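quick one before i forget lol
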Amino acid sequence: MTEWHGLGVSSLMTLPEFLEKGRRSTPLVGLLLYAIAAAFWISFYPYYPETHYALFTTAVLIFFLFTLKQPMAAFGLLLLVASFYGNHPGGRFLETFDILLILSVAGFTIRKRTPDLYSSPDGSSANASHLLNHLMLVILLVMALGFCSAYYLFESLEGYKLEPFYWMAASEWLPHYSIRVAIVSLLAFVAAREFAARIREVPVNISATVMFLIPAIPLLIGIMESLIPGLGKLLDRLHIYLDGYVHRSPSHLSAIKIAPALDGLSPNSLFWNRSWFSVYLIACLPLVGLGVHLLGPQRRRRTIWRAAIVTLLAAYSYCVIAIGARAGLATFGCFAMVLLLLRIPMMRRPSVLWLIVLVLAVFTIVLPFSAFLPQVATHLGPRAELFASGLRLWSIFPLGGAGPESFGFWNDTLLRGMGYQRLYESSHNFFLQIGAGMGLAGVAMVAALYWLAFRAIIDEIGPDRYSPGRIIYFAGMIAMILYGSFQEWWYIRGVQLIWWLSVIVPIAIWSRPPSLFLKISNRPMFAGLGFLYALACAMLFYSGIRLNRQYPIFENVGHLEIVTASSDDSLNGGTEYRYPLLQGDGQFLVKSDGKEKPITFQCSNEDPSLTGSLDPRRICKYKHLEKNEIAEDLHSIESGALE
């Protein structure tokens, strides 16, 4: 018990004391996480073929033993297999990655690590652990704030199945998905923090090798796919089995004929389309820098390591050109340009480095808004509409958003009723995904993480200090943020984990805690911030429950389906379209006499579900419509996929 700054008010503990107490109790958290992972995995049995379940169970058990004995080795293995989980949410077996991540965090938390492994730039013990504890609390509160206005997201759960499998295998348009992404983000943060704290426990040669292998595995497969006839078709069959489809796109640089085995098409490697192969490679660039940094100057001079680094960067260049994705080419070109510029001592001044970051930040903010300009929209193509929809959604939930990565859900619920529904369930822009999902609070949070990461890196670079590892890390972060203007970072499981690792590692091992984070541990300030947070959450909740009074929404209604019924079909009278109506209360819009009007319905929980075991929806009945009754844009179901 301590006095509250002479005011005579007793408090139980300070914020740092509270966070430190939570850290000391992590072995119990680890046991709980192990129990959760085991319970979830056992519950998956009905959804897997028996042979597959037996194989995955064996792999999960082996991984579990690794986490008990060598948590760093287990986490390194998880990073190495991340590219094998390169399919979109809802694909087969992706939920196993979440199980492995839970086990990794459990292994970290159940085993005590050596204290004070973090170090400040001068080599002395730093307060980075406290800084990261504060950051975790901020991330948790910002994500929770995003859910305060997501009343209809939670209310919609009544129309879906709620067993663990459906949460972890959720597609991006489901209400489960946003909650899963938030939880996985917190787990990824903890894993990245513990990895940074323990990295000095691992022999340098091993840790550097792992960092290089993370991108090298999909790079090797992509190169083989480009050169070996027939391998691309085998990979396509694999993706069709896992996802039901695959996207093959012509390379924008097909004239170079750098991938002769693919006939002008781009390699996809372990991903279901070329774009995410490219995204994954760019996401790994900071980790390549970390590997170079870990080697140190003496090892970097050895021929074998020089050859490894040069070969890896050459493989990067080959695959980026073979893929031929414009955003990938631009971001990798930016990465290479920054590397070349920073070879000049004058360009390594902090003012110049911060100017590069500032220009990047301005571009990131301005690009989405430029989608409303016809000249820019023409060049952006389909992304212009996605950016516009993302901005509209953010404008409805400006402060706290409506749930992390919830664009897909609100695209089917809110934007659908407003006439702005898009074929894709993502805005294809990380800035907009954060803004729509967590509002200004989320944008400020991510900006703070980026600022802390760049601050830590830039403090270690100077005109008289040429640090190749940190320079590659800096250039990789620049490329990663630039690519975030054309894709998102929390969509693919492996990419999401690598994003958190790339951002947290420099904060953990190179940063000095800013005074701001020390000030918020002051009890009166913390109490005041707590009051403002509670007030903001209450206001957002009130606005969330009134959403249907302000905007037309589709509630508990599945995607519009094409029935293609025969004219003598007595069930639906020859109509072409239908809405699946989910259990619970709901509404949808129809056109009548040239106007849109809401139609409400109610399905009792006693009504049997019309879906099979793998369908997450609890459909109680269908509403058949004539084409002229449909209020939503038919583009969302009648258009083909866009690349």
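fyi Residues 237 and 246 are 8 Å apart (CA to CA).
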